[in-house]
Amino acid sequence: MNTLTSTDYPQPQSGDIPRYSGLPTFFRLPFGAQIADLSIGVVGVPWDGGTTNRAGTRHGPRELRNASSLVRRVHPVTYQSPYDLAKVGDLGDVQVNPVDVQDSLARIESYYRTLYQQQVMPLTAGGDHLTTLPILRALGREKPLGMIHFDAHSDTNDTYFGGEKFTHGTPFRRAVEEGVLDPKRTVQIGIRGALFSEHDHAWARANGITIIPMEQVAQEGMQTVMERARAIVGMEPTYISFDIDVLDPVYAPGTGTPEIGGMTTLQAQQGVRLLQGLNLVGADVVEVAPPFDQGNLTSMTGATMMFELLCQLADAHHRRMTSTGAMR
User: Fold this and answer.
1) What is the pLDDT of residues 136-171, one digit of tens each?
2) Rounded to whole angstroms, what are the CA distances from 257 to 183, 221, 253, 296, 304?
3) Do 285 and 304 form a contact (C-beta atoms < 8 A)?
């Protein structure tokens, strides 16, 4: 069998090139990657068709790319580089339709179905949180996925504004209803903020979704919370969705629906680092809205969380390849 070594994998541009120069790509990876050549594809979904109030997440992927140039190649705790464990590339943006929600959902699902068929794990830069629904449709069509979901909001409401079922407040209700997300293997961490009704979370809990409020995170600590989350999702295929508004707005002001009393950036990093060893199949960072940002703080934070997730996806890929003896 013809095998590759890590030196054959795409690498970020060297330190000889200033980080502010050249074409902006995720993590300064080489431009023009082909799907068939990769094991992890970093994808932008510049879309906010599901936003119900402050729009602007359509600009998220471009600013996340820019900010990702600040991220170096080796993780500061594990001392591993994800680019030595998996073939990673920037696949560009999905071509969405900014004036047609259903058309965009179909386009996104089709794109991610191609990634799934090519056995490429997606790391996505949103886009609002409705973006995650077509991704789950693509990845969970044969078997519903588990999910660890970091967010201030449960996003399991039913309808908005006269019966509209597809908004960034409804994706996970739709995903459960459509059979692409397993509610008994879904954990939502950091939930907080005022509600429309005292019954807002009743449907999620009645269907088996585990909601861990931010107050519980603060009381128990990330280690305990993540041990519970890991036990719930087990070793079956699991998706990670990270809404930037899980962070307190002092760390991430550039988002559409900020809620005070959130996680610190260190807590979020600790939570993602405690995903190591799970059977991960994809991840996203959503709801970065640059028009509301200050000093590019939220974009920088979002890009850093994307790197943390990339490290976990690369580790999961490497473990699978090592266990099967394959190489890609």
Assistant:
1) 999 999 999 999 999 999 999 988 888 889 999 999
2) 24, 24, 9, 17, 20
3) no
